Amino acid sequence: MLIKNLHRFSRYSFKDKSLLIEATVLLTIAKTAVTFLPFRWIAPHLGQSMAETPLSDHSGHNRIEDRISWAIQTMSRYLPWECKCLVQAVCGKLMLRRRRLISTLYLGVAKDENGSLSAHAWLRCGHRILTGDSGAEQFKIISSFGDQGFSK
Amino acid sequence: MTRARTIDLDTMVERREDVVFSEVDGEIVAMSIQSGKYYGLQEIGSRIWDIIDDPISISKICEALMAEYDVTADQCNLDVLRFMEKLWNKDLIRLVDQKPA
Question: Which of B18, B31, B35 faces A142 most closely, judged by CB atoms?
Answer without folding.
Answer: B31
